[in-house]
Q: What sequence folds into this?
């Protein structure tokens, strides 16, 4: 029988050979008991050297491999299906986190049993990891940096795989119909801005924005 963990970190990766190492190093330097943490990386059919990069972390992470690219929500769902943690948090494969990221979010949920989720603020960084700006996760929400109770996710259901973009908006919309996401004004997450950010595709974003409205 699989040993249950306190925290499951889910990292979905597609063609992220350039950044995945930095992401995983930040997760493996957390101020936590790693007997209570699992890092699940879902390689969503990468065509570059991402699989090789993941081999460098063999033994420290759990790898799930898709034979072909299925899209971000499908990759996240693959991670959720095998996650054993009491708490679930996503980190994007091109981002990284402060060394106290997991500890602070976990501590908040441990001491606030009525809270179903908590998110932190973040710094936007450039390719050289220089801070560009500080952002509030309430005013400028992103998909990651939110720790959820697994029990709450089980009530809401998995990601809607029709939303290849804005999947987090659709999920949060369903989540917040029943629960709230509390906020810690501490910038523990590092959102990397670069030319290949999926959110740079304005036309696709508008398509899924319209689709989200139609789901009402």
A:
């Amino acid at each position: 029988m699989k040993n249950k963990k306190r925290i499951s970190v889910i990292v979905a990766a597609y063609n992220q050979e350039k950044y995945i190492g930095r992401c995983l190093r930040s997760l493996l330097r957390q101020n936590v008991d790693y007997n209570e943490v699992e890092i699940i990386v879902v390689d969503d059919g990468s065509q570059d050297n991402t699989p090789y990069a993941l081999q460098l972390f063999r033994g420290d992470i759990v790898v799930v491999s898709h034979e072909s690219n299925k899209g971000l929500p499908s990759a996240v769902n693959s991670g959720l299906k095998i996650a054993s943690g009491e708490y679930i948090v996503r980190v994007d494969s091109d981002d990284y986190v402060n060394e106290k990221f997991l500890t602070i979010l976990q501590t908040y949920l441990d001491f606030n049993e009525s809270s179903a989720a908590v998110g932190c603020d973040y710094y936007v960084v450039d390719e050289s990891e220089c801070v560009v700006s500080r952002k509030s996760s309430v005013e400028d929400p992103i998909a990651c940096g939110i720790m959820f109770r697994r029990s709450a996710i089980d009530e809401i259901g998995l990601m809607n795989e029709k939303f290849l973009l804005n999947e987090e908006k659709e999920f949060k919309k369903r989540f917040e119909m029943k629960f709230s996401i509390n906020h810690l004004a501490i910038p523990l997450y590092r959102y990397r801005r670069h030319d290949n950010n999926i959110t740079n595709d304005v036309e696709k974003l508008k398509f899924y924005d319209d689709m989200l409205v139609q789901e009402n």
About this structure: The chain is about 30% helix and 25% strand.
